[in-house]
Specification:
Layout (H helix, E strand, L loop, with lengths): L1 H16 L15 H19 L2 H4 L5 H6 L9 E2 L8 H7 L7 H20 L6 H22 L1 E4 L11 E4 H15 L14 H19 L8 H16 L17 H4 L3 E5 L40 H4 L10 E2 L5 H4 L3 E4 L1 E2 L17 E2 L6 E2 L11 E3 L20 E5 H14 L3 H14 L10 H12 L5 H7 L24 H6 L10
Parallel strand pairs: 1-9
Antiparallel strand pairs: 2-3, 4-11, 5-6, 6-10, 7-8
Protein name: RagB/SusD family nutrient uptake outer membrane protein
Subcellular location: Cell outer membrane
Pfam families: SusD_RagB
Amino acid sequence: MRSKIAYIILVLVIGGMASCTKLDEKLGSTITKNQADSVIKVAALLVTAYDGLQLPFQDQSNYWALCEMTSDEAVAPTRGGDWDDNGVWRALKLHNWNSDHTFIGNAFTAILQLQFLATNVLNFHPSESQAAEARFLRAWSMFATLDGWGQVPFRNPGDTLLNAPKVLKAAEAADFIISELQAIIPILSDSAKAYQANQNAARALLMKVYLNRGAFLNRQSPTFEAADMQQVIALADQIINSGKYSINSNFFANFAYNNDVVGTENIFTQRNGPGYSTAGSRGGNNAFCRWAPTLHYNQDPSGWNGFTTISDFYDKFEATDTRRGGSYAGVTDVTGLKVGFLLGQQYGAGGVALKDRKGNPLIFTRELKLQETDPTTLEVTGIRVVKYPPDLTSKESRNSNNASNDYVFLRYADVLLMKAEAMLRTGDAAGALVIVNDLRVKRGATPFAALTLDNLIDERGREMYWEGWRREDLIRFGKFLDTWQLKPSDDPKYLLFPIPTSDLSVNKNLVQNTGY
C-alpha cells in the first residue's frame, strides 16, 4: 500500500513540475521522462534508506541489545530451556563477548547497510532537500558505528564497490559527522513530521556528537572540552526556542500507538504500522518488541517471557515518580496490563489475577539469576519493563509489526538533560540543577538539593531507560566497567565492540580493536 501512495505522491510532484502536461503524453520541456524516472527512483531509494533504521535500532536482538543488555537496565535471563541461544544474552550482560558474537556481527552489518542505503540516494542526483535527508541518515549510521566500534568504514558517493571502503578513525569520523550535520541543518525542513529528518533532529544528533566526542577519543578517561559543551548548550537552546516541544504530562504517551499525535516530546522517530513497518524493504521487528520479549505468555498481549530489569535499577525510582509506571488508558482498562515496571501480582481484564503456565499466581519477583533453573519460579523472576504501551487497536497490532507505535530515537527530555550535563561539566551546577529539577517535578519526583555527576547519570537512567542510550551514557560517565548486580568489574577492552571476524577478512582497512 505504501509503495502505491509514494508513487501517487511522486506523480503529483511530477505533474506539478510539468505544469499542464497530460499524463499520457511524453513529458515536455518542463521535465523529461528520464528526469521523471530519476525523481521516482530517488524518492523510492530514500524510503528504503529510512526503512534501514528498523533492523539495527528497533529489533530486540540487534544494536538495541548491544546498548541495553550490556548496561544495568536490561537482562535476558535463561529460563529453563528458553532464552539461552548459546549464551549470547549472558555474554552481553557479563561483558565477555568476542568477535564472533552473533548480535555484534549482525549489528555491524545492519548499521553499515543503513549507511550504504543512504549513500546510494546521493548517487542518483537527488534534490537538495532529499540529499540533506540522506546525509542525515548517513550521519546517524556513522554515529552508531563510531559509538559501538570506534572506527567507521566509509565510501563517498560514486566510489567503486570493487574496492574495500576506507576506514575513518574516531577523530576523523567525529569531525566528518559534525561537518555534515552543520551543513544540512539549514537545508532540512523545520516543519517536517518527527519521522522525517528535520532541523531539530540534526541539532539533537549534533549535540550527542559534541557531548560524546571526548569519550570517543579516549574511552577510559573522557575529557569534555569547554567549546564542545558550549556547542551542546547552544544547540539545545535552538531546539528549546523553536517552541515545538514540551514535556508531556503523560510520560508514556510519548511511546503510545498514537504517539505521532500525542507525543509532545518526540523529535525524531521511525514511522510504524501497517504499510510502513510491514514493508518488504524493512527487516527485523518494530516497536512491538519493546513489550513482547518482557511480558509473560498469559498476559495480554501475550509475550515471550524474557527480558527484565535488575532490582537495583528499579530502586533508583521514587514511588511517586510517574516514570516508574501505572495504569494507561486504552491498555489497562482493556486488558489489565499496566505500563512501566511490572512487579508483584499481575492482573488481566476485569481485575482477574493471572497465573503462570503451571497454575501458580503470576507474581513477578525482584529475585533474578542469569540462568533460572527452579521450575517453580523460572517463569516469574525479574521485574518486567513496558515503556511502549501496546497497540491494542487490532488483533494483529498486539504482537506484530502492525503495531503503530512510532519508534522514538530523539526526545525533548533528552535534549534538556544533555544541556544540563554540558552546563554541569562547565561549572554551572546551579543552572543545570534548575533544568533537572524542573523535569523531576513534572515527573512527580522530589527535587534534588544539589546536582552531581552521580545523580545525573541516575536521572538519565530514570528518564531514558530502554531507549538505547544507556551504554553510551555509562561510558561517558566512566561507569560502564563498574560492578553492578549480576555483573563483575571488567576489562577496558569492552568499552568497544570487536570488529566481526568476517568483516576483518574482507576489508583489510579495518583494524581489530585492542584486546580482541
